[in-house]
Fold:
Amino acid sequence: MKKYFIFFLITWQTGLTQPFYNEILAFKKQDSLSFPEKGQILFIGSSSFTLWKEVQNDFPLHRILNRGFGGSTISDLLFYFKDIVIPYQPKQIVVYCGENDIANDSLVTGKVVFRRFVQLYDSIRFRLGNIPVVYISMKPSPSRWHLRNKMREGNLRIRKFTKKKHRNLIFVDVWSAMLNEKGEPKEDIYQEDKLHMNRKGYEIWKKMLEPLLLK
Structure:
Protein backbone atom coordinates (compact mmCIF):
# COMPACT_ATOMS: atom_id res chain seq x y z
CA MET A 1 0.00 0.00 0.00
CA LYS A 2 2.84 2.34 0.87
CA LYS A 3 4.54 1.74 -2.50
CA TYR A 4 1.35 2.61 -4.39
CA PHE A 5 1.00 5.82 -2.39
CA ILE A 6 4.57 6.86 -3.16
CA PHE A 7 4.04 6.12 -6.86
CA PHE A 8 0.84 8.20 -6.85
CA LEU A 9 2.58 11.07 -5.04
CA ILE A 10 5.50 11.15 -7.51
CA THR A 11 3.12 11.02 -10.48
CA TRP A 12 0.95 13.80 -9.01
CA GLN A 13 3.95 16.04 -8.26
CA THR A 14 5.40 15.49 -11.73
CA GLY A 15 2.08 16.40 -13.30
CA LEU A 16 2.07 19.67 -11.38
CA THR A 17 5.56 20.70 -12.47
CA GLN A 18 5.81 19.44 -16.05
CA PRO A 19 3.45 20.88 -18.71
CA PHE A 20 1.47 18.38 -20.79
CA TYR A 21 2.31 15.51 -18.48
CA ASN A 22 -1.33 14.40 -18.44
CA GLU A 23 -1.51 14.46 -22.23
CA ILE A 24 1.53 12.21 -22.45
CA LEU A 25 0.04 9.89 -19.83
CA ALA A 26 -3.10 9.67 -21.98
CA PHE A 27 -0.98 8.56 -24.96
CA LYS A 28 0.69 5.94 -22.79
CA LYS A 29 -2.67 4.67 -21.63
CA GLN A 30 -3.82 4.34 -25.24
CA ASP A 31 -0.64 2.47 -26.06
CA SER A 32 -1.11 0.09 -23.14
CA LEU A 33 -4.55 -0.87 -24.44
CA SER A 34 -3.48 -1.28 -28.05
CA PHE A 35 0.05 -0.42 -29.09
CA PRO A 36 0.22 1.22 -32.55
CA GLU A 37 1.75 -0.69 -35.42
CA LYS A 38 5.30 0.26 -36.20
CA GLY A 39 6.18 1.92 -39.49
CA GLN A 40 3.34 4.45 -39.56
CA ILE A 41 3.55 8.13 -40.51
CA LEU A 42 3.90 10.01 -37.23
CA PHE A 43 2.37 13.47 -36.79
CA ILE A 44 3.88 15.43 -33.90
CA GLY A 45 3.20 19.02 -32.93
CA SER A 46 0.66 21.35 -31.40
CA SER A 47 -3.12 21.87 -31.52
CA SER A 48 -3.35 22.06 -35.31
CA PHE A 49 -2.61 18.34 -35.23
CA THR A 50 -4.57 17.62 -32.05
CA LEU A 51 -7.72 19.03 -33.64
CA TRP A 52 -7.19 17.26 -36.95
CA LYS A 53 -9.64 14.52 -35.99
CA GLU A 54 -10.20 13.38 -39.58
CA VAL A 55 -6.53 13.09 -40.48
CA GLN A 56 -6.69 9.33 -41.07
CA ASN A 57 -9.78 9.69 -43.26
CA ASP A 58 -8.09 12.50 -45.16
CA PHE A 59 -5.20 10.20 -46.06
CA PRO A 60 -6.83 6.79 -46.57
CA LEU A 61 -3.85 5.40 -48.47
CA HIS A 62 -1.56 5.99 -45.50
CA ARG A 63 -1.34 4.82 -41.91
CA ILE A 64 -1.29 7.92 -39.70
CA LEU A 65 -0.39 8.06 -36.00
CA ASN A 66 -1.30 11.44 -34.50
CA ARG A 67 0.62 12.43 -31.38
CA GLY A 68 0.00 16.17 -31.42
CA PHE A 69 -0.80 17.82 -28.10
CA GLY A 70 -2.33 21.27 -27.96
CA GLY A 71 -0.29 24.24 -26.82
CA SER A 72 3.04 22.47 -27.20
CA THR A 73 6.27 24.09 -28.32
CA ILE A 74 9.28 22.59 -30.05
CA SER A 75 10.94 22.47 -26.63
CA ASP A 76 8.07 20.28 -25.42
CA LEU A 77 8.53 17.93 -28.37
CA LEU A 78 12.18 17.65 -27.45
CA PHE A 79 11.40 17.00 -23.79
CA TYR A 80 8.93 14.21 -24.62
CA PHE A 81 10.85 12.89 -27.61
CA LYS A 82 11.44 9.49 -26.02
CA ASP A 83 7.71 9.20 -25.29
CA ILE A 84 6.06 10.42 -28.49
CA VAL A 85 8.60 9.46 -31.15
CA ILE A 86 11.04 6.68 -30.26
CA PRO A 87 8.56 3.93 -29.23
CA TYR A 88 6.65 4.02 -32.52
CA GLN A 89 9.54 3.55 -34.97
CA PRO A 90 7.77 5.57 -37.67
CA LYS A 91 8.71 5.45 -41.35
CA GLN A 92 8.11 9.21 -41.73
CA ILE A 93 7.60 12.16 -39.38
CA VAL A 94 5.45 15.24 -40.04
CA VAL A 95 6.03 18.21 -37.71
CA TYR A 96 3.87 21.24 -37.01
CA CYS A 97 5.25 23.34 -34.19
CA GLY A 98 6.88 26.71 -33.52
CA GLU A 99 3.89 29.01 -33.43
CA ASN A 100 3.38 28.58 -29.68
CA ASP A 101 7.09 29.09 -29.02
CA ILE A 102 6.71 32.65 -30.26
CA ALA A 103 3.23 33.32 -28.87
CA ASN A 104 4.07 32.09 -25.37
CA ASP A 105 7.30 34.03 -24.85
CA SER A 106 8.00 37.56 -26.09
CA LEU A 107 11.74 36.85 -25.96
CA VAL A 108 11.49 34.04 -28.50
CA THR A 109 12.41 35.15 -32.00
CA GLY A 110 12.24 33.43 -35.35
CA LYS A 111 15.91 32.58 -34.92
CA VAL A 112 15.19 30.85 -31.61
CA VAL A 113 12.45 28.77 -33.23
CA PHE A 114 14.88 27.83 -35.99
CA ARG A 115 17.51 26.72 -33.47
CA ARG A 116 14.98 24.64 -31.59
CA PHE A 117 13.88 23.00 -34.82
CA VAL A 118 17.49 22.13 -35.65
CA GLN A 119 17.76 20.48 -32.22
CA LEU A 120 14.64 18.44 -32.98
CA TYR A 121 15.93 17.54 -36.43
CA ASP A 122 19.29 16.46 -34.99
CA SER A 123 17.51 14.31 -32.39
CA ILE A 124 15.51 12.58 -35.11
CA ARG A 125 18.63 11.95 -37.17
CA PHE A 126 20.59 10.68 -34.17
CA ARG A 127 17.90 8.26 -33.00
CA LEU A 128 16.12 7.31 -36.25
CA GLY A 129 18.71 7.79 -38.97
CA ASN A 130 17.75 9.22 -42.33
CA ILE A 131 13.99 8.88 -41.87
CA PRO A 132 11.98 11.30 -44.08
CA VAL A 133 10.87 14.43 -42.20
CA VAL A 134 8.27 16.98 -43.31
CA TYR A 135 8.08 20.35 -41.56
CA ILE A 136 4.88 22.36 -42.03
CA SER A 137 5.57 26.08 -41.81
CA MET A 138 4.00 28.17 -39.09
CA LYS A 139 0.59 29.31 -40.26
CA PRO A 140 -0.64 32.94 -40.41
CA SER A 141 -3.23 32.90 -37.63
CA PRO A 142 -5.34 36.10 -37.57
CA SER A 143 -5.23 36.27 -33.76
CA ARG A 144 -1.42 36.19 -33.91
CA TRP A 145 -0.95 38.41 -36.93
CA HIS A 146 0.98 40.89 -34.79
CA LEU A 147 3.68 38.21 -34.48
CA ARG A 148 3.94 37.70 -38.23
CA ASN A 149 7.47 39.10 -38.61
CA LYS A 150 8.89 36.63 -36.10
CA MET A 151 7.01 33.76 -37.70
CA ARG A 152 8.11 34.74 -41.18
CA GLU A 153 11.71 34.86 -40.00
CA GLY A 154 11.41 31.43 -38.43
CA ASN A 155 9.81 29.98 -41.54
CA LEU A 156 12.46 31.51 -43.79
CA ARG A 157 15.36 30.20 -41.70
CA ILE A 158 13.91 26.70 -41.54
CA ARG A 159 13.17 26.75 -45.26
CA LYS A 160 16.77 27.68 -46.05
CA PHE A 161 17.96 24.95 -43.71
CA THR A 162 15.91 22.31 -45.51
CA LYS A 163 17.49 23.27 -48.84
CA LYS A 164 20.96 22.56 -47.44
CA LYS A 165 20.00 19.16 -46.06
CA HIS A 166 19.15 15.82 -47.58
CA ARG A 167 16.13 15.26 -49.75
CA ASN A 168 14.60 13.51 -46.74
CA LEU A 169 13.80 16.88 -45.17
CA ILE A 170 10.95 18.80 -46.79
CA PHE A 171 9.53 22.25 -45.97
CA VAL A 172 5.82 22.84 -46.70
CA ASP A 173 4.89 26.51 -47.09
CA VAL A 174 1.31 26.65 -45.84
CA TRP A 175 1.84 30.30 -44.83
CA SER A 176 1.57 31.57 -48.40
CA ALA A 177 -1.32 29.26 -49.23
CA MET A 178 -3.36 30.63 -46.31
CA LEU A 179 -3.10 34.29 -47.29
CA ASN A 180 -5.61 36.22 -49.39
CA GLU A 181 -4.89 38.53 -52.33
CA LYS A 182 -4.06 41.34 -49.88
CA GLY A 183 -1.39 39.24 -48.20
CA GLU A 184 -3.46 38.79 -45.05
CA PRO A 185 -4.83 35.60 -43.43
CA LYS A 186 -7.95 34.15 -45.05
CA GLU A 187 -10.60 34.71 -42.41
CA ASP A 188 -12.94 31.98 -43.66
CA ILE A 189 -10.50 29.12 -43.03
CA TYR A 190 -10.37 29.70 -39.27
CA GLN A 191 -12.66 29.01 -36.36
CA GLU A 192 -14.20 31.82 -34.34
CA ASP A 193 -11.11 32.09 -32.16
CA LYS A 194 -9.13 33.15 -35.26
CA LEU A 195 -6.39 30.76 -34.20
CA HIS A 196 -7.47 27.24 -35.02
CA MET A 197 -8.46 26.13 -38.49
CA ASN A 198 -11.84 24.94 -39.66
CA ARG A 199 -12.39 22.31 -42.32
CA LYS A 200 -11.44 24.71 -45.12
CA GLY A 201 -8.05 25.24 -43.55
CA TYR A 202 -7.40 21.53 -43.24
CA GLU A 203 -8.35 21.05 -46.87
CA ILE A 204 -5.45 23.32 -47.79
CA TRP A 205 -3.06 21.28 -45.66
CA LYS A 206 -4.44 18.02 -47.01
CA LYS A 207 -3.86 19.04 -50.60
CA MET A 208 -0.29 20.14 -49.90
CA LEU A 209 0.68 17.13 -47.79
CA GLU A 210 -0.82 14.31 -49.83
CA PRO A 211 1.94 14.15 -52.48
CA LEU A 212 4.64 14.15 -49.77
CA LEU A 213 3.43 11.26 -47.61
CA LEU A 214 5.01 7.85 -48.09
CA LYS A 215 2.76 5.14 -49.40
